[in-house]
Amino acid sequence: MDINLTLIGQSIAMFVFVWFCMKFIWPVILAAIEERQEQIAAGLAAAEHGEQKLEQAKAEADDIVSNARTRATSILDQANSLANDIVAEGKSGGMKERERQLTAAKADIEQEANRAREELREQVSAIAVASAEKILQREIDAKTHQDILGKLAQEL
Amino acid sequence: MASEGGHSPQTSGEYIAHHLQNLQVCQSDGGEWIWNHCAGNPMTINVDSMFWSVFLGVIFIVLFRSAAKKSSAREPSRFQAAVEIIVDFVDGSVKDTFRGKSRLIAPLGLTIFVWVFLMNLMDLIPVDWIPMAAGWAGIKYMKVVPTTDVNVTFGMSIAVFFLILFYTVKNKGIGGFIAELTLHPIAPPLKGPGIIAAPFIISFNFILESVALIAKPVSLSLRLFGNMFAGELIFILIAMLGLWQLPLHFLWAIFHILIITLQAFIFMMLTIVYLSLASESH
C-alpha cells in the first residue's frame, strides 16, 4: 500500500479521459439533449397554438350552426304563416262562394214560389169564377162583372 | 476459498494478504524490471490497478462516445436515453452547485462519476474469479478493484487538487490565492499599532488554510479508498466462510451497490463543490 508511480499514472489517465470526455462526448450529448428540448418546446407551443385555433374554429362553427338554425326557424315560421294565409284565403273564398250560391238558390226558390203562387191564384180565381157561375146558374156578363171578379181574384 | 498454484493450502492470513497484494513491477538499481519484489521502491507501478482503471476508463469512453456518435435529438435509442439520464443528472448537479461558466467542470464530473462507479463496480465480481483466472494464466497477483488501491484514489484527488489550484489562480490571481491563504479566517490588522501582531496572525492563518487546502484532496481520496477497501475486505472475509458465503455475499453485494454508487457520487459532487469554491470569491 505504498505510494508509488501508479499515482502519477492514474493522474495522467484521468486527465486524458477527462479531456476526451470534454472534447468528444459531453458537447455532443448535451447538444442532442438541448436540441430535443427546443423541439419539445416548439412542439408544445405548436400544439397550444393548434388548440387555440381549434377553439376558434369551434366557436365559429357554433356561430354558423346557430345562425343557420335561427334562419331555418324563421323560414319555417314564414312558410307556416304563408300556409295559414293560403288556407284562410281558401276558406274565406269558399264561404263567399257558398253565400253567393246560397243567395242565388234562395232567389231562385223565391222566384219559383212566387210563380207557383201566381199560378195558383189564377187557377183559384178561375175555379172561383166557375163555381160562382155554377152557383148563380145564370149567365153572368163577364164584361160587367169583370171588376168584381178581378177584385175577388185579387183577394185570394 | 481458492488455492493458488497447487502449493500447500493457504492459511486465512495468507489468503487475505494475497488478495490485498497488487501485481507490481519496478526497476531495480541495475536497471532490471522486477516483478512483485518492490516493497518500499517509489518507482513501482501497480500493473493491475493501472490496467483495470485504464480498461474501465476506456469502456466509459467507448460506451459514451458511441452513444454520442449515434445521438439523435428526434429518436433517441434506449442506450442513448440511459446515457442521457446520467449526463442530465451530472449536468443538474453541476448547475445546482457551480454558478460560473466552465467547459471543463461538467465533463470532469461525468468522467469522475462514471469512471469511479465502474471501478467500484469491480467489487461486485466475486473476489476469487479474476485472481484465479489470472493464476491459471501465470499471473501471481491480481487486485481487480482499482479504487481499493490508495494510489489510484490519490492520483485522482491530486488531479482534482491541481485543478483547484489552477482555478483559484485563474479566477482570483496569484494575489487572490495568497490572500485566501493568509487573510482568513482572522483578518490581520494592517494599520496602526496592531500591525506588530500581523505576522503572527498571517502565519496562523497560513497554517490553518494550508491544512484546509491539503485536507481537500486527502479526504477526497481517503474517503473513497477507505470505503472501497473496507467493502473489499468484507467480501474477502465472507469468501472464507464456506457455504455460508452465498447468502452473505448476496446481502453484502446488495448493500454494496448503494455504497459504490454513493461513493462515486460523493467524489463527483465534492470535486464540483471544491472547483466552484475555487471559482467564486467569498
Quickly list its features.
A: 156 residues, mainly alpha, rod-shaped, B: 282 residues, 8 helices, 3 strands, globular
Structural account:
The complex is a heterodimer of chains A (156) and B (282). Chain A is 90% helix and 0% strand. Chain A contains two helices and no strands. Chain A has helices at residues 6-136, 146-155. In chain A, α1 packs antiparallel against α2 (146-155). Chain B is mainly alpha-helical. Chain B has one domain (12-273). Chain B has a three-stranded antiparallel β-sheet. In chain B, a hairpin with a 5-residue loop joins β1 (24-27) and β2 (33-35). At the A-B interface, α1 of A face β3, α2, α3, α4 and α6 of B.
Describe the secondary structure blueprint for this structure.
The complex is a heterodimer of chains A (156) and B (282).
Chain A: H1 6-136, H2 146-155
Helix pairs in contact in A: 1-2
Chain B: H1 12-19, E1 24-27, E2 33-35, E3 44-46, H2 47-69, H3 78-97, H4 105-121, H5 129-136, H6 150-182, H7 198-239, H8 245-279
Antiparallel strand pairs in B: 1-2, 1-3
Helix pairs in contact in B: 2-4, 3-4, 4-8, 6-7, 6-8, 7-8
User: How do the strands line up in the largest sheet of chain B?
Assistant: 2-1-3
Mean pLDDT of chain B: 88
The oligomeric status of these chains comes to heterodimer
Helix content of chain A: over 70%
Give the helix level of chain B as a range of percent: 55-70%
Using the CA coordinates, give the radius of gyration of chain A: 61 Å
**What's the helix-strand series of chain A?**
HH
The average pLDDT score of chain A comes to: 89
